[in-house]
Amino acid sequence: MLSVAVVGSGPSGVYTAQALLQQSLVPDVRVHVLDRLPTPYGLVRYGVAPDHEKIKSLQNSLRAVLEDERVTFVGNVGVGGPDGVSPARLAELYHAVVYCVGASADRALAVPGEGLPGSYSATRFVSWYSAHPDIGADPFARDALEARSAVVIGVGNVAVDVARILARGAGELRRTDVPRAALRALEESRVREVHIVGRRGPSQARFTTRELRELGALPGARVVVDPTELALDPAYAAPDGLPGALPLPAVVRRNLEVLRGWSVGGGAGAAGDMPGGAPGSADAVRRIRLRFFLRPVELLERGGRVAGVRFARTAPDEAGGVRDTGRYEDVEAQLVLRAVGYRGVELPGLPFDPVRGTVPHAAGRVLRGGVPSPGEYVAGWIKRGPTGVIGSNRSCAKETVASLLADAAALTRRTAADDPLAVLREWGLRPVEWAGWLSIERAEAELGRSLGRGPVKIPDWAGLLAAARDENG
Ligand SMILES: Cc1cc2nc3c(=O)[nH]c(=O)nc-3n(C[C@H](O)[C@H](O)[C@H](O)COP(=O)(O)OP(=O)(O)OC[C@H]3O[C@@H](n4cnc5c(N)ncnc54)[C@H](O)[C@@H]3O)c2cc1C
Ligand SMILES: NC(=O)c1ccc[n+]([C@@H]2O[C@H](COP(=O)([O-])OP(=O)(O)OC[C@H]3O[C@@H](n4cnc5c(N)ncnc54)[C@H](OP(=O)(O)O)[C@@H]3O)[C@@H](O)[C@H]2O)c1
User: 194-203, 270-279, 329-338: which has the minimum mean pLDDT?
Assistant: First the structure.
């Protein structure tokens, strides 16, 4: 029998468990999926936007894996943290451990003013509206949404998510599982302008077309683009390809088509600020301005809070990047969200590459001093870095499991605990098992019913743990 611990119950952890169940090389496997949270699914629960119900429903297929009789969910057990279990001790309990801990930190802009009140990472904002229990009582509810104008820095899918949540009427969010405090704050939000700003051109934006189009379909909001800004991008001007250059990727072509459609009829500032082709209802109260070729250089301050962002105007260079033009533009904003990527966090006791923010590995085998460390593996964002959609983690996990299975003969000669959960309890940990999670689900459904809504997320540790312990509730 091969006994495996998977650390992290996000997509990469669950796909790792699934790949272990679906193989036939080692028929007798037992998989414990540990998570520091009492709740499973990682960013599918705490990242995927609440209004993306279809993607959220992927939880159902992840759930089927965690409910397999060969799999045990072990929530509320952190690995490598002060209150958790160290990688060295965990290795005593299982033949192999696969680390699937994601990339939970944010990247900084490293510009003056970044620490001003009113300036946050999108990571934090996402965690807030997703009810991540680490966020706790948060300033968003109190003051950030008093802003009239918000700047979102970055043009990836996370930038589009946070801009959409800011621009979407809270009425529509009522049907989602957004926690009460966040819903209230979004209901009271005075944000009317949301600027999404890229430092390069539209052909280099990282958002996908579906997500981009969705901005144009928001009731109560209008998208504004500036055709002269778009035209600065050589690929926009020549969508069929520049002489001697490779054809544009399909996603870029589609994005440019959408932007072109929106730009018809004038630029930002023209025609009453609403270019003719821009979508959105006539009575739109919010505007989403998509801006390009603006590199943030400083967050501006007034009265001790953020008041705007100073951007350097850039222009395309010959190498696919941009150069500064020596010109600047200030954009007013009382709320600034930087959506410039996530970052892996070092897990004490595991090797870490601080530049890439990942664990060094060879085909999923953790490398210590450049050599594979027996019984230690890695998958998902902590292996590849913070890019890729949910499905990308499936092939990533498969590669790791193939390496693990190739090592299986040696691994099963190592010792493993008969009952790792009993040992974890002896060590003072208080695992939340599947029944505890189901109990949290019931409590969230009950909370929602009492509010006349569907399930509503419990946003704090105490509430989650109380619900988990109330297994008969
Ligand atoms: C805001 C946001 C929205 C997204 N929306 C979409 C979308 O709509 N569609 C899509 O396809 N992709 C989306 N993605 C991408 C997708 O979420 C990721 O590809 C995927 O979640 C990465 O999976 P992972 O398992 O590596 O990490 P995660 O999902 O982050 O899972 C890591 C898990 O490890 C646990 N963990 C961390 N540290 C420890 C520890 N020390 N001990 C124990 N457990 C630990 C965490 O609690 C977490 O449950 C989104 C990403 C973000 C950031
Ligand atoms: N609906 C979905 O499917 C969905 C939703 C959310 C997230 N995701 C996925 O999750 C992954 C992470 O998304 P993400 O948006 O965090 O990352 P991302 O796709 O890497 O986008 C990051 C953005 O930040 C910009 N940026 C980085 N550093 C900057 C700086 N110093 N100043 C200004 N801009 C800067 C980047 O611009 P440059 O290109 O110029 O570096 C880029 O536009 C992606 O694979 C994404 O597709 C998917």
Answer: 270-279
- From ligand 1's centre to the CA of 386, what distance in Å? 9
From atom 3 of ligand 2, which residue's Cα is the shortest distance away? 389
Check for a shared fold between 2-104+344-432 and 107-338. Answer: no
What is the number of the ligand closest to the CA of 84?
Answer: 1
What's residue 282's pLDDT? Answer: 57
What is the pLDDT at residue 470? 83
- State which ligand 1 atom lies nearest to the alpha carbon of 388: 19
pTM above 0.85, yes or no: yes
Residue 458 CA to ligand 2 centre (angstroms)? 28
CATH superfamily of domain region 2-104+344-432: NAD(P)-binding Rossmann-like Domain (3.40.50.720)
Q: Separation of 42 CA from ligand 2 center, angstroms?
A: 19
* Region 107-338: CATH code: 3.50.50.60
- CA torsion sign for 83, 89, 92, 94 is positive
